[in-house]
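Let's do one together. I've listed all components of the complex below, 493 residues spread over two lines.
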Amino acid sequence: MRRLLEILLGRSQPPPARSEGLIALSNAVVTMEAQLGFRPGEEAALVFRLVDSPYFDRTSQELDELAALTAKEAGTGYRSEVDRYRYRWIILKDPDFEDVLTAIHMLAQTIQEQGFSEQLLAAVFRFTSPQGEAFYWVYQYKRGRFSPFAPRGDQQRDHALELRLANALRRELPVEDELERWFPLWGIPF
Amino acid sequence: MTYSMRRVTKWSSDPGLATRMLLVMGLLALVYLGFIAVLVSSGVDTVAVLVIAVLMAGVQYLFSDTIALASVGAKVVEPRQEPELHAMVERLAALADVPKPKVAVVDTPVPNAFAAGRSPRAAVVAVTTGLLRTLEPREVEAVLAHEIAHVRNRDVMVMTIASFFAVVAQLVVRWLTWGGSWSSGRGRRGGSGLVVIYLASLVVWLISFFLIRALSRYREFAADRGAALLTGSPSLLMSALLKISGVMQRIPDRDLREVSELNAFFILPAIKGSSFFELFSTHPSLERRLERLRALAREMEGV
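Okay, and this is what the predicted structure of the assembly comes out as:
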């Protein structure tokens, strides 16, 4: 009913983020490592869209302060960059995967609390396959689900690996089941 | 803190626009109901008329993407051919929570873009090579966001349904104009009944024409707003619109006419009329679109 009204009136806001699915990764990472041999990387990132607004600038500032504070207290490394499509990446680095996950969740929570939930695009977690290749779990905030991403060079993906891991982790992770929504993120900076 | 959540969520809605949209839709529904009443009471074989109209509208609706692409000579491009375009569309689709639409390119110097397809799942967004040449990448993205907002709002479906009985009325008028024998041959009703139906259809066609155009303009405003919020920047869409319209005025006429049939789909119509004729137009005037975007930008800046 609400959706019908939205269609009729042509609602313009992007949908809000759903963050509840993210935390499932803290269990899945054990299966990834112990069972499948995919080591979690030390880095992970939160990706969100910039907004031309002083309100958003203040939120950004707050995120920076929060990340710097975490860096000081838990020893989590932190850097930030804006990509060519005008999305900002906050990249956290910590040997303890649990710490990275918690920090990402906290930053996303802050964005949501400031009312910019619509801007959240994804959280990206890197893994390394037993063969030493990169594999990413991309948490899509609008769906509240994870999609696999195994980039191989220029615009190529290892679909077989993606399907394999999506299938293997299905019980533990809210994996996106519509294949056409397995969006790639080219140029992940880690 | 001064930057509360309320402040932000307010950007998303435009109650004035929503009210006007509902009003127009309500009026359309009234006109259409009246039309059905006239058809039924005057003893026309309403069911047959409706079946034909449903078939016509249905075909157009189901194949709207194919029809639109074919009629302007748009070619669907793969990620490998246009990696930048695809990357932009993918991210915008993920932000807007719609499946990734197909991406097509039209080879014409006229800078423009359109969206088509009956549902988000079958949607396609197309840009012209002129657009890619004229605009900077981030402005192209703003235009893509406008088209994705159309997809998300299911504008093809809404407009198809909204104009359904207008099509029926148009059909009836044509039939009666061309061959009165179609109905009078059956000898069921005299000439006066036919005149009533003819006049009713004509009036419905006329009124619904303006209502549908108004609805179309409101949906353009909504898509503009959606694009501004999706990209987080009204000014990018503003500069894109300004550049497109600037180039449009300098492009030779022949090209303009070539693409004019598809006006309703485009981000900017190819033929420009004066603002007096806005009543007849599928798109609001550039000035009014910019004014809306400026107002939104001011709100976002908090000034």
